[in-house]
Amino acid sequence: MPSPNSVKILDVCKVAPATYSQDQSATELSLPLTFYDSTWLKFPPTQNLFFYKFTEHSTKSAVFHSSIFPTLKQSLAETLVHFRPLAGHLTWPPSNPSRPVIIYNFPNHGVPLALAESDTDFDQYVTTEIQDAAAARPYVPELHISETMAWTMALQVTLFPGKGFCIGITTHHAIFDGKSAFMFLKAWADMSKKMQNEKLLPVTLSQELIPSFDRTVIKDPAEFESMYLNHWLAVNGLESQHSNARSLKVSNFFGNIPNDFVRSSFYLSPENIKKIKDRVILYYQKQKNSAKRLHLSTFVLTCAYALVCMVKSKGVSNKKVAFVFGVDCRNRSITNPPIPLNYFGNAIVLHDLVVEAEDFVDENGVATVAEKLSDYINGLEKGLLEGAKERLERLSHIGDDLLKFGVAGATRLAFYNMDFGWGKPVKVEIPSINVNALSVMEGREGNGVEIGLGLMKNEMEAFASFFAQGLAN
After folding, report:
1. Preceding omega of 337 cis (within 30 degrees of 0)
2. In this structure, are residues 195 and 68 in contact, taking their beta carbons and an 8 Å threshold?
3. Is 315 in a helix, a strand, or coil?
4. pTM of the predicted structure, to 2 decimals
5. Checking CA distances to 117, which of 3, 16, 336, 361 falls within 20 to 30 Å?
6. Coil, strand or helix: which one is 307?
7. How far, in Å, CA of 133 to CA of 435, rounded?
């Protein structure tokens, strides 16, 4: 496991959007948060790590310092021209009415970018073996968050001499959701690759990678924004260390990470997913004899299978289990006009499904959970925002009678396609998933699903056993 001493910070700089004109719109902006963003205001930041292995022609560290890192830095500046708010910071003004807002001002603002070097065994780290959770910590950039100001994101590029490098990104949860983070990273990767080929500036991005920051498409007739902001004001009042009612300090919802907390990743191939789907359909036809429409998407099947393995690994059967997941509202008919696919920000609504633990550990637990999750998702057609107030109160409750699991990401997010010009990553990790959480993304070969999760070591070993046994039977 790498220690903080195994990673040396060589330099820290601030990268601002490339400037081609001095018009006011290019140097200053103010962008308010929406109620979707405010949902996540006090949540811990999201972290992503992308590990790249050197090709034969770029094995020397000199190539990294003379070509790779400068290209990453310059292409970041070019990309920020389109993602200018990410170079600013978040604040919560005391004015009334008050809402948090992103402020950007050139030349005072920019994205912090750290250059580091590690002597850790790169090849050993990028395997799919179980790793201590703390092993990722040195490669994750720290996001500065004070009571009055928060960065939108921070970046770190870590060199493993002769082996490869890692790009680490930490993002404020109130600024990004998974789809927006993917859009930014994909734009940066494409910009970097094009700069190496075209050698001309400015480089143009494809239309689907140009973000929309138009907040007028977000409608809030039920005043969800006031509900969420009042909730966070109340949270700040309960946390005695915050003298400022509008403190931006994040809350420690998930508690401290235990010493024996580990992470690992597991893969469901398209064949595995089809086999799980066939089992669910067969069981349902035999037991239910019903023509009810089942929503057996890759997401439903993946979560049902992983959750059954997780609950079994916990060894519990006498509790209720809450599965918390997000639903993307882009391009849906809940707003008029619909939120466009390239909308940048948060457009995710949290939902939760509560199931008895005994349903998970039953012999046909995967089919039972898949059916319940299918019914829930089919019911969302009535309204994605229905019951938001009650759900906020329910999710804020922490009790020993309820076992909560959460999921981050989406099965179609192709993070393994992030090619900055030196090949695709050999490993993608989401260190910010905590105890009782899992992440999902498209598999590294461009198909199937990669599942990342964090558990106690004995639970992870049990999970691995249940996961393999279930696919073999």
Report:
1. yes
2. no
3. coil
4. 0.94
5. 16
6. helix
7. 10
